Amino acid sequence: MTPGLFVLSRDKVFANQVCSRLSSRFQLVVVDCLETAQMRLETVPIRAVLAHLSEETLNGHTAESFLTELQQTVTVAPIYGLVDPDCPADFRQLAADVVRECLPMPIDYDRLEQLIEQCELPAIDLTGYCTGLPHRALQGKTRLLVTFTPSMFAMFEELRVAAAHDVTILLIGETGSGKTYLARLIHELSSRHNERCLTVGCGALPPDLIESELFGYVKGAFTGADTNKEGKFAAAANGTLLLDEIDVLGPKQQAKLLRVLETGEYEPVGSNDTQTSSARLVVASNYDLDKLVKADKFRIDLYYRLNILSFHLPPLRERPWDIEYLARKFAVEHSRVHNIELRHIEPEFLSALRQYHWPGNIRELENVMRRAVLYCRGGVLAPADLPSALRPANKGNTQGNGSRRPLTLEERVSEIEQRIIEESLRRHNHHRTDTAKELGISRVTLYNKMKKFGMLN
Predict the structure, then answer these.
(1) CA-to-CA separations, 8 to 19, 43, 107, 278, in angstroms, rounded
(2) Of the candidates 407, 392, 405, 387, the residue with the CA atom closest to the CA atom of residue 347
(3) Number of other CB atoms surrounding residue 153 within 10 Å
(4) How many angstroms separate the CA atoms of 180 and 185, rounded?
(5) What's the rounded Cα separation, in Å, for the pair 170 and 166?
(6) What burial class does residue 398 get, using C-beta atoms within 10 Å of its C-beta: 0-12 exposed, 13-18 middle, 19+ buried?
(7) Per residue in 12-36, pLDDT tens?
(8) Considering the entire predicted model, what is its pTM?
(9) Which of 4, 197, 208, 355 has a CA between 20 and 30 Å from the CA of residue 267?
(10) Is 377 in a helix, a strand, or coil?
(11) What does the alpha-carbon distance between residue 119 and residue 401 come to, in Å, rounded to a whole number?
(12) Can you list the residues of the chain whose pLDDT is less than 70?
C-alpha cells in the first residue's frame, strides 16, 4: 500500500486548499480529529502528517493534551505544523517542541513539498511494518523508540510521563540493551531538550579519576592539574547528565552523588568552594542495584533515592517481536550511511535473527546488521551475509520434501500479531476490553482480528 500524507484539520476550506496543491504528487488522507486519525492509522501507512494548528483544531482539548495525544497517535512518521494566524500563543509555543517544523500561513508550498520529499522512502517500509500491528512508540526530535512487546507497553507510557517532569530517572538493563539511547530520548522529550545532554561512562574511568570527571578540579589539586577544569555536572549546566554504569562507583563517590541528588551541592577536587548543579540526572546500571545493596556494595540510602522512578529494559531475547523491526531499522540506516542500495531482505535472513540468543542485545544486533549491509550483493540481505554463528545450518535442498514454504511478509506480520494478541488475552484472563486497552486498539478492532485468526469460540 502506498504511504499516504495525512492532513489533520477541521477547516474544510483549508483542507481542500492543501489537497488541491499536493494531491498531484501525494496520496492524501484528510481527517478532522485525532479520534478519526487513530482509526485510519490502524490500516493506512503514512509518509508524514500535516497538522493544522488553530483554535478550531483543539476542539475542546488543551494545547498540552492535544499535542500529547497527537504524539501518541502518530508514532513513526514526522509531523509538520501548519500554523494558522488564530493559533493561540501557548499552542504555537508547545507545538514547536513536538512537531518537526512549523510553517506559518499562508503556506510556502515549495518549502513544504521539499520537507515531505526529505522523508526518505526507504524508511516508509518501517511505517508500513508498524501499520495495524499493536505497538508503542516514544518519539523525540531525532530519536524514535518502538516496541511490539506487550509487556513493555505500560512502561512506555510511564516513561513518557517521567521524561516530561524534572526528576531523576534510573535505567537498569544488560549491556547493549539501549540505556544510552533511551536516556538521550528522555532528554529530547523533556523541557530541557534545547540544552546539552552529556554522558559519563563511569565504567570506562579509573576509580581515582571519576570524581574529577564528575565535579572538576582546581589548579594544584594534584600532580598535573595545571589549570582549573570544570566537571560534567558544571558542563551540563541546565541540561541532562547521564551517569552510565553507576554500579561501579566506590563508597566515596556514592556519598558525594547522594549529596548532589539531595541538595545539588558539590565541591571540585581540591576546592572548598561549594557549587550547585542545575542538571537533570539519568543514571544507568547493568545490574539490579538491590542485589548490590544486599551484598553491601551499594549504599542503601542512595539506592532508595534513585529507585523512585526506575525502569528495567528487558534483554533482546525477551523481546522477540522487536527483532525484525530493529533489523529493518538498522538495515535502512546503514545502507544510507554507506550508500549501499537495499531492496529486499530474505525471509531466511530474518528467521536466523529471530532464532539467535543475542547476548550482546541491541548493540550486537546493530553490529550484525552493519556487517550484513556491507557484505550484501545486489541489494538483497541473505543468510550468507550473516556471521557464521548466526547462519542456519545447511540442510541441503529440501524442495519437495514437505518442508514449510517461506512465509510472505504479510503472513509473518500476521503470525507475530496473533502471538501478541494471544499473550495479551492470557495476561488479562481473556477480558477483551482490558486487552484492547493494553494493545491500544478498539474492542471492535480486537474482535475483528480475533475473528480473522480463528480465535473466537
Answers:
(1) 11, 17, 15, 39
(2) 407
(3) 20
(4) 9
(5) 13
(6) exposed
(7) 999 999 988 888 888 888 988 888 8
(8) 0.70
(9) 197
(10) strand
(11) 45
(12) 1-3, 42-45, 76, 119-132, 393-409, 457
> What's the chain's Rg over C-alpha atoms?
25
Give the rounded distance of the alpha carbon of 95 from its chain centre: 20
Ordered domains of the chain (ranges, CATH): 4-132 (3.40.50.2300), 139-312 (3.40.50.300), 316-385 (1.10.8.60), 409-452 (1.10.10)
What is the Cα–Cα distance from 186 to 174, expressed in whole angstroms? Answer: 19
Question: Distance between CA atoms of 72 and 425, rounded to whole angstroms?
Answer: 23
- Cα–Cα distance, 183 to 26 (Å, whole number): 36
Q: Which residue has the cell 482509526?
A: 39
β-pair type (275-276, 265-266): antiparallel
pLDDT tens per residue, range 415-438: 778 878 877 887 787 788 888 888
393 phi/psi in degrees, rounded to 5: -60, 140
Is the bond preceding 392 in cis, omega lying within 30 degrees of 0?
no
